[in-house]
Amino acid sequence: MEAASLPAALELVAGGGAGLSPEKRAVLGSSLLLLQRDYRFERVWFWGCIQGVRGAYYIAEGLGSDCAAPRSRLYSLNCVEWSLLPPVTAEMVAQAEQLKGRFQGDPSFEYTYTEIKEDAERLLEGGKEPTIKEEARLVATIEQIDKAVGIIPRGAFLKTPRGSVHENRNFEGLSLTEAKKLSSYFHFTVPVSLKNKTLLEKADLDPSTDFLDSLEHDIPQG
């Protein structure tokens, strides 16, 4: 959700039965704008909330002029003070996939390899069990969710000849016919299958709009 239109957007999603309190919505509306000013972001999105046992993580993403560039992710425990999350790594994702159960709500909390069902005899030098901080798990979880459900409609963003991606201000939504097609939606992440397409398959694609992986060939897990 865009920071500038956050109060109205939160009102719309609150009808589903899960939302933020009026106090939290009021605080977020002002703190995200201050966050955008302090970090000099072009735009700030409220990503969402991950509930833990002892508290909740409120997540925001900061964007520059290129909407497809890596985003800066921040979290807050009180919707006022924000901390920058480190960039995600493949190791973080691999470790987080082994974790089960709820978050604790404490970014300094450490999971041991015993807790994630790894071999208990696998020790680091010095005889200490390797641990994973909850902050690293948080980063990896956000990345996994973005890859799975970060979706945009075709035409909502345009890629310029220089390679940067910007919001299409002329986009007014998909037609009813196009909205029913999976090919009208893209994963808003770095494309993978697009690079494997042949030149013949790419011939009918518009490079300004079809620069991401389509949902039409996705196979649901399970």
UniProtKB/TrEMBL annotation:
GO terms for cellular component: axoneme; kinocilium. Its main location: other. The keyword Glycosyltransferase does not apply. Keywords: Cell projection, Cilium, Cilium biogenesis/degradation, Cytoplasm, Cytoskeleton, Flagellum. The keyword Membrane does not apply. It is found in: Cell projection, Kinocilium; Cytoplasm, Cytoskeleton, Flagellum axoneme. It comes from the Eukaryota. One of its GO terms (biological process) is axoneme assembly. Belongs to the flagellar radial spoke RSP9 family. This is Radial spoke head protein 9 homolog.
